[in-house]
Amino acid sequence: MELQNKATALWSNFLNVKMVQIRTFHMTWFAFFSCFFAWFGIAPLMSVVRDELQLTPEQIGWAIIGSVSMTIFARLFIGWLCDRIGPRKSYTWLLLIGSLPVMGIGLAQSFETFLLFRVLIGGIGAAFVITQYHTSVMFAPNVVGQANATSAGWGNLGGGVTQFVMPLLFSVMVIGFGFSEAVGWRLSMVVVGVIIFLTGIAYYFLTQDAPDGNFDELRAQGRMEEKKKVTGNYMHALKDPRVWVLFVIYGACFGIELTVNNVAALYFMDYFDLNLVTAGFVAASFGLMNLFARTLGGIFGDNFGSLWGLRGRAFWLFICLFFEGCALMVFSQMSVLFLALPSLIVFSFFTQMAEGATYSVVPFINKKALGAVAGVVGAGGNAGAVLAGFLFKNVIDWSEAFFILGVIVTCASFLAFLVRFSTRQEDEERAAFAAANIETLRRRAEKANAALDEGLTALARREGRTPAQ
C-alpha cells in the first residue's frame, strides 16, 4: 500500500528541518557522503600504500575490483532489509558495522590483509540503496526524482572531496604531527572511521522510516504490508526484465564513476606526471560535479515526466547515457592536461546526470518492492565497476581502457528504450503527479494567505485599530 503524507516540495522547504521529510533528506545525503568518502578514502593515498606494501600493478587492479565487488552483494541484501526493518535501522547498522573495516585497514601489513579490508570496506557502498529508498518514501512523485538525485549526488560528492581532503589529512599527520608515512595513511583512515560511527548514532535518533512513523508502528496499525510478504515481493521484482535493464544501465554510469574514482589519481600521476596532491585535486574535479549534475539529471527527469509521462523519464535517461559515452571516448584521447581536464568535467557532467535520471525512473518500477528494485539496480553499478576494473588490472594502456568503456556506454544507452510502462500505470502516475502538484499549490496558497494576514494585522496595529476594523 502507498505511504501517505509525502513531501510535495523540496527546495521551498529546504531548511525546514522540523519537517521529518526534510530532516531525513539532509541526514541521508550526509550519511551517504560519509560512506562514499570512507569507501574511496584510500584511493588518493594508493601511491603511498603501493610503495610501502610493494604492490604490483596487478595487485592494485585486484584492490580496485575488490573495493566494489563486495558492494554488489551488500546492495542486493540491503534492499530486502529496508523493506523488512525500515531504512532507519538499516542505515544505523550499516554505518556502525561499516566503520570497523574503515578503521581496521590501518592494520594491513601485506597485500592479502590490505585486500581483505578493502573488500570489507566495500560493504558501506550499500548506503546508496538506503539513501534512495529513504528519499523515495519521503517525497511525492512530482519531486522524487530531484530528491533522489540530489541526496545521491551530494553523497557521491564524497568521492570527489576525498581526492583532495585525504592527501591534506595525510600531510597533516606526517608534517604537522611528525608521524611516518606508514603511520600517517593508517591514522587518516581511523579518523574517517570514527566519523562514520558517529554518523550512524545520529541517524538513529534524527530520522524515522516514513512520514507517518516507523515501519514497526505502521505495520501494527495495519498501514503497511506485513514482513512475511517482503520476500515474496522481492522475488516478484526480480522477475521484471526492466529491473535488469536498469541494472545494466546503472553499471554504465555509476559503475564508470566508481572506476574513475579508483584510478583517476594514479592515472593523472602516471600519465601526466603530477604529484600526489595535484593529482588529487585534478581527480576531485570528476567527483565534485555531483554537487549539481546529478540533481539536474533528477530535475530534468521530473520535467520530462510531467510532459511525456514515464516514457519521458526513460527517454531522458537515454540522452544522458549516450552523451556520457561520447564524452568518455573524447577524454580517453586527451594527452595534455589542459585538454584532459575540461573533457573529464564534461564526461563527469553527463555521467552524474545519467545516474540521477536512472533513479528518477526506479521509484515507479514496483512500489511494493522498492527496496528490491533500488538494491538490484544499485548493485548493477558495482557490477559494472567490477567488469571495468578488469580492463585496468590487465596490462593494457589505461587510455585505451577508457576508450573501450566509452564505446560500451554508448551502446548501452539504447537499452533505455526497453524500459516501458503499461498504459494503466502511465495514467495512474499522471494522476498522482497532478495531485502532488495541486497539493504543492494549495500549501503555497496557505502560506501566502498566512503572510497576508500577518501583514494586515501588523498594519492595523501601527494604525491603532484592530484587524477586524
From TrEMBL:
Superkingdom of origin organism: Bacteria
Coiled-coil annotated residue ranges, if any: 424-451
Compartments, record wording: Membrane
Example GO BP: nitrate assimilation
GO molecular function, one term: nitrate transmembrane transporter activity
UniProt topology in membrane: Multi-pass membrane protein
Residues in Major facilitator superfamily (MFS) profile domain copies: 24-424
Gene3D superfamilies named in the record: MFS general substrate transporter like domains
InterPro entries: MFS (IPR011701), MFS_dom (IPR020846), MFS_trans_sf (IPR036259), NO3_transporter (IPR044772)
GO cellular-component term (any): membrane
Transmembrane segments: 28-48, 60-78, 90-108, 114-133, 154-179, 185-206, 243-268, 274-293, 314-331, 337-357, 369-392, 398-419
Keyword hit for Translocase: no
Keywords: Coiled coil, Membrane, Nitrate assimilation, Transmembrane, Transmembrane helix
Family per record: Belongs to the major facilitator superfamily. Nitrate/nitrite porter (TC 2.A.1.8) family.
Protein's UniProt name: MFS transporter
Organism: Rhodophyticola porphyridii
Origin organism lineage: Bacteria, Pseudomonadati, Pseudomonadota, Alphaproteobacteria, Rhodobacterales
